[in-house]
Amino acid sequence: MEQKQFGPEVQNTPSSSRRPFKASDHAHDGKQHLLLAASGSVATIKIPNILEALSRHSNLSICLILTKSAANFLVGQSSEQPSVETLRACKNVEDIFFDEDEWVHPWKRGQPILHIELRRWSSMLVIAPLSANTLAKITGGFSDNLLTSVVRAWDTTGETEGTDPVPNSKKRILAAPAMNTAMWRQPVTKNQISTLEEEWGVSVKEGDLRDGWFEVLRPQEKELACGDVGDGAMKDWREIVKVIEKRLHLDD
């Protein structure tokens, strides 16, 4: 049977019949909650691999955020790039959200706000891939789409959601940058990564006592989709899966 093609204009159309997402509806499901996001990079095509690899964990629930640019890489072009509707059927996938889902229903006082509810719901946010544009937005404090709004609303102290502000108590953001080699080597990129690692970063080395909330999974060197060879390619998706499993203690 020929696979139905879902273009971005179909995928990104929010459903007014969708029940508003509330973190409290999932508070006692006994699962770890992974908020997995992709921004506008070719490496978005690795999202299906990540979802498939994580499907073995029965104690994991996943919500996926796709930016408008990221959705263009998953419109059923090939088996490597299935449609978003195919991803929705993957085991452990609770739901998939787009920018347009933020304000589906005419909002009134007392109704949930999606980027806040997703922040409350998540045990951890993983942005894979993190594009150069979204990197700039995050470090600049912009919140002009669903993903950057979640990041801007992140509880960076552990106090907003009532957890004690002690080491390892903060919910973490993991980001796997992916961009052209020249973009990765730009001085502005170096400064932005320094903000994530040095100012906001968690300690990943013995003896480093920094107590941040952001962890950067640095790119690898390989031939990129554009044909250039160099660093800037997203960290191997298998390694990303291993880090997710370790941080969420999925194999404990």
Automatic annotation (TrEMBL):
Pfam families: Flavoprotein (PF02441). InterPro entries: Flavin_trans-like, Flavoprotein. Coiled coil: none annotated. GO terms for cellular component: phosphopantothenoylcysteine decarboxylase complex. GO terms for molecular function: FMN binding; phosphopantothenoylcysteine decarboxylase activity. Residues 1-25 are annotated as: Disordered. One of its GO terms (biological process) is coenzyme A biosynthetic process. Residues 33-246 form the Flavoprotein domain. It comes from the Eukaryota. Keywords: Coenzyme A biosynthesis. Belongs to the HFCD (homooligomeric flavin containing Cys decarboxylase) superfamily. This is Flavoprotein domain-containing protein.
